[in-house]
Write a structure and sequence with these properties.
Largest sheet of chain A: 8 strands, mixed
Strand order of the largest sheet of chain A: 6-9-10-22-21-20-17-11
CATH architecture of the largest domain in chain A: 2-Layer Sandwich
Function (chains A, B): Catalyzes the attachment of L-aspartate to tRNA(Asp) in a two-step reaction: L-aspartate is first activated by ATP to form Asp-AMP and then transferred to the acceptor end of tRNA(Asp).
Subcellular location (chains A, B): Cytoplasm
Number of helices of chain A: 17
Enzyme class (chains A, B): ligase
Oligomer: homodimer
Shape of chain A: globular
Protein name (chains A, B): Aspartate--tRNA ligase
Radius of gyration of chain A: 30 Å
CATH superfamily of the largest domain in chain A: Bira Bifunctional Protein, Domain 2
Strand content of chain A: 15-25%
Structural class of chain A: alpha+beta
Helix content of chain A: 25-40%
Subunit structure (chains A, B): Homodimer.
Chain lengths: 585, 585
């Protein structure tokens, strides 16, 4: 028996009890005549005490020689602490040790195992197993586990069946790049890892399972960014005999349940916004509505005033940065520099100061009167003390740029509060988006998303205008979930593949099994998938999903702890009927 | 709204209610003046009725034209049924339809969607989405989901944290063959898919997580048998500061909880047996103890009687097949043929009839007296009416052969009852097993399993005799779980790798991260993994794990439904820096 109790549970109620604890030496203070050890395990910290009077000499000397992160087992008596620590549950007691066993020694860790460590990101990733000993990391993993458990309870109670769909599937040309797995038993052929269980969950609906969910790993071989991992986790759901409203209700219910359970928050109906409105009002299909700063379009007002730059543009639009009239000229110059960074790539920024006295001062005073600027300010809902920031250009581009600026200003003004939650449904997405590079339409959601019946007449004449039965759940400016009502008619599905540039043969080769399944009584169905890593992080007030993944990969897709990927043996490749194109280093 | 109710819930309590149901046309009986439809969804079957008197002509004609597996929406009134069906919950009512909408048509399915279908295994796998509509398949998937949910509840309540470990890891030479994934971002390098999260869960223990579990997909690229799939699911668990007894207690608790929840069974302490005893008594390390038929060794009795075949053998051992004295000579010949099949490859079978009158009649009467045979019978616990079946040969081989025969006889005698459950812990496994082919020791469990401290002195002199802190949970003759207390001392781990034939460099390259982690205060830890697919199937009284997997692969590792694996594009291979050795077909 390694322990009678954990390091997080002993209190005054246990005084005089003989106990045994096991854990790590977190800190050791040696005053010569007395030694205190903070013994740490997952559950907390308990103070161990030894002194010259009450402890044997041998034991005392053993204790003094313990190093940080040694694993020890301590037996002793719970006693009341002289100077209590009200910050921890065990702060009223300490253990007067009468034996200490060293279970394992430890080299000096490469960084301190503290809430505020001295270790940088890289070293903590390499020694992730030590990083996990730190409360902030450990608690995030425990939080993730609790959320997963609660999701399952909620969906199970609503008769959803969790079905494990296969990981070794087939590569498809649509969507992101696949990871592939060469097959030993089928020479020259490859499995692919799923980007999502999309087709399988649809087949489960054809199979009559009615309500499916799965918390499941998915894989995308894309270039990585801070918030993207090659393997990530989805809460994947699908329902039969439902309309968009049914699905939104169920998963709004789930989101409310989680916000209530973990944040103690109550919500009425989540607000809804069309994609078109979201783009117009926030320049973004996942607007953060914890704050206003809505876009004001002034194209009609700003053109025709001899200001060439504006006259040439498709859209002129601005926001009112609250109280930012206090910005100095230098501050504004920095903002202009910021929007010109390659990530934003804006050409410029027009500014208008809304002075307290009701006058305006702008970078374009040569072209616009006080009345002109007042009209702008009104469109942007500005008040005295605000600073208008105006951008112009191609509609899609300028909206994206101004949206990035809006988020940046909000960040600076402290408007993105981690303990405030603003959910939002974005609906009525376009079915297709035109891709300039490949010169064809791509599915905005995925090729199985159904068009709105009332827009079906546009599918031949103006496919870009067709709206989809698709919906995203947005939380604090992050898309945490998205889904759609699916096509369940084989002819519409075939037409969709055609729109996406598939020949009939290609569609058959790639998705023949799905279209074949649709011949045998496919029910109306639809679903939704939450990005679980992101949902968990946002729920916990963070936007760094990597922190919520036990063993994340870096931006080159490497696990620096185990040093993967790695070279494999030639014999292994031979067995798989593949060769490497890379000359041996 | 597609439905007000499901097809499984309406009863007399709902009489006169206006309802709408959606589902599949399971059967349609057309009597000319009246039409009955069995409407099916996941939840059950409800009878729909239309007749010439009460239904409009148009509706009546629509109904008559419905085909099997059409998806329809029916509105109507709940009425009492004339001839009630007590076998289904909805058997007291039917729906008098007043409208029917065809939601989707169906081609004639390639097999009947019935509990007893006319479809063979191959066709059902190709159309797995139709197979899932059948109750026996659907119910197995729902059962699996319920068991997973219950496992999670149980472990969550005991403070286990579910942590998702990575799927893209590193290939290791130990164990089975890995599936590998070429890396696009790290040219010439490969990820491997995990055979189990073994090292990661140990790192989580080093990380202080204390109690970990995960229900997780694992992957082995081995030749497949009926009960083996390239991807399978484990309940993977690990605990810190525990001894073997602690772990066995926790997971015996879990097994009892599941047997209670799903089978209503109560168990006392599970029996335990050493590996050595299991081999001696049952010839097998996963004995089915629902029945006796224990081995009786008669080497000492049977040698030295001028029966050459026996005199040359290492072990002579038999079982008493209860009541099988009734077997004809022809029956026995068939049994001899059975043990000579390539799968068993026994050279022969000596038989002894235990006659009702106390006499014996055997195939070796020339060499043995009645007293000799009586002594054999006693060793095998035989009684009058039994048939002794005796085999001889190399100890390991003959035990395996007789074990197979024992199971076969039990199957024939109906002793392997699916509703009877006999759990058993097998303990004290050898640490290592000698592999003739590679002429080196292999880890019997895995290279991280700790030797028993009391056997440590044998590790240099006689490593084959060292026992491990390893344990298997056996249920009805199937290993459903296995685990061990791990090595947590870096020196012992290094010695273990050495025993397994690794050079220090190889050990460092493959497991350096783990041995490095052990430098920083690794706690004592151990764990266990259940084979979830198998556990679920056995709990449900079946041994066919494939039935409990939504989309299984066939014996060539193919998913015949989606036709994977498949060829991929040359550009895809180029991006991954690989080429195929297979010339294009």
């Amino acid at each position: 028996m390694f322990r009678t109790n954990t390091c997080g549970e002993l209190t005054q109620a246990n005084i005089n009890e003989k106990v045994t604890l096991s854990g790590w030496v977190s800190t050791l203070r040696d005053k010569g005549f007395m030694v205190w050890i903070d013994l740490r395990d997952r559950y907390g910290i308990t103070q161990i005490i030894l002194d010259e009077d009450r402890s044997s000499k041998e034991l005392f000397e053993t204790a003094r020689k313990l190093g940080r992160e040694f694993v020890i087992q301590v037996s002793g008596t719970v006693i009341e602490r002289a100077s209590k620590n009200p910050n921890i549950p065990t702060g009223e007691i300490e253990i007067l040790a009468d034996s200490i066993t060293i279970l394992n020694e430890s080299a000096l860790p490469p960084f301190t195992i503290d809430d505020n460590t001295d270790g940088g990101e890289d070293i903590r990733m390499k020694y992730r197993y030590l990083d996990i000993r730190r409360n902030p990391v450990k608690n995030k993993l425990i939080f993730r586990s609790k959320v997963a458990q609660e999701v399952r309870k909620y969906l199970d109670a609503q008769d959803f069946v969790e079905v494990e769909t296969p990981v070794l599937i087939k590569s498809t040309p649509e969507g992101a790049r696949d990871f592939v797995v060469p097959s030993r038993m089928n020479p020259g052929e490859f499995y692919a890892l799923p980007q999502s269980p999309q087709t399988f969950k649809q087949l489960l609906m054809v199979g009559g399972l009615d309500k499916y969910f799965q918390i499941v790993k998915c894989f995308r071989d894309e270039d990585l960014r801070a918030d993207r991992q090659p393997e990530f986790t989805q809460i994947d759901c699908e329902m039969s005999f439902v309309e968009q409203e049914d699905i939104m209700n169920v998963f709004e219910g789930l989101a409310k349940h989680l916000l209530h359970t973990f944040k103690g928050l109550e919500f009425g109906d989540f607000p809804r916004m069309t994609f078109a409105d979201a783009m117009r009002r926030y320049g973004n299909d996942k607007p953060d509505i914890r704050f206003g700063m809505e876009f004001g379009e002034i194209t009609d007002l700003a053109k025709g005033h001899d200001f060439k730059i504006f006259d040439e543009q498709e859209l002129i639009v601005g926001i009112a940065a609250e109280g930012c009239n206090s910005y100095t000229r230098k501050d504004i110059d920095k903002l202009i520099e910021w929007v010109q960074r390659p990530q934003i790539a804006a050409t410029g920024l027009v500014w208008v100061r809304c002075n307290e006295d009701g006058t305006y001062k702008s970078s374009v005073d040569k072209f616009y009167t006080q009345e002109d600027l007042a009209a702008w300010a009104e469109r942007m809902n500005a008040k005295a003390g605000d600073l208008l920031l105006v951008m112009s250009g191609n509609t899609n581009k300028v909206r994206a740029q101004l949206s990035a600026l809006r988020m940046e200003i909000a960040e600076r003004l402290g408007l993105r509060k981690p303990d405030e939650f603003a959910p939002l449904w974005v609906v009525d997405f376009p079915l297709l988006e035109w891709d300039e590079e490949s010169e064809r339409y791509h599915a905005m959601h995925h090729p199985f998303t159904s068009p709105k019946p009332e827009d079906m007449e546009l599918i031949d004449s103006n496919p870009g205008e067709v709206r989809a039965n698709a919906y995203d759940l947005v939380l604090n400016g992050n898309e945490i979930g998205g889904g759609s009502i699916r096509i369940f008619d084989k002819n519409i599905q075939a037409r969709m593949f055609e729109l996406l540039g598939f020949t009939a043969e290609q569609a058959e080769a790639q998705f023949g099994f799905l279209m074949n399944a649709f011949k045998y009584g496919a029910p109306p169905h639809g679903g939704l998938a939450f990005g679980f890593d992101r949902f968990v992080s946002i729920l916990d007030g963070s936007e760094t999903i990597r922190d919520y993944i036990a063993f994340p990969k870096n931006n080159s897709g490497r696990d620096v702890m185990i040093d993967a990927p790695a070279a494999i043996d030639q014999t292994q490749m031979d067995e798989l009927f593949i060769q490497s194109n890379v000359v041996e280093k």
